Amino acid sequence: MTEFLASLPEAAHPDKPSARVFSTDAFFIKDGVYCFDAKKLPEYHQRNLCGFIEAMAEGTPVVICDNTNLAHWEYLSYETAAKALGYEVEKVLIGSPGDRRHQALCAERNSHGVPLVAIRRMARTFQP
């Protein structure tokens, strides 16, 4: 995603970014450390969605939801809001969830310490 964001043109207005990224995970970072709390997940998902919608309402050209969405219902609110505000929606699937090698790579690379067994469980529930 870093390369994609770097490829975007500069914003037309200095006080208005050309792109914004919204990730529920960002709410779990405290003093630079990721501290997941399942009890906070509904609240943080709602806050993330609100920020996403606000960015579109402000006219940010590119607005990205960077969440793990295993089923359509998990990103439906983002998609519905984007379409209602006149945005083109593009869903990007990174890798192949059913590929065991890709699952191992995700376990190796993820920054939150999600173990391979959990990634494999998520892959089994994935709905394209």
From TrEMBL:
Name of this chain's protein: Uncharacterized protein
Gene3D superfamilies per record: P-loop containing nucleotide triphosphate hydrolases (3.40.50.300)
Species of provenance: Shewanella amazonensis (strain ATCC BAA-1098 / SB2B)
InterPro entries given in the database record: NEDD4-bd_p2, P-loop_NTPase
Entry superkingdom: Bacteria
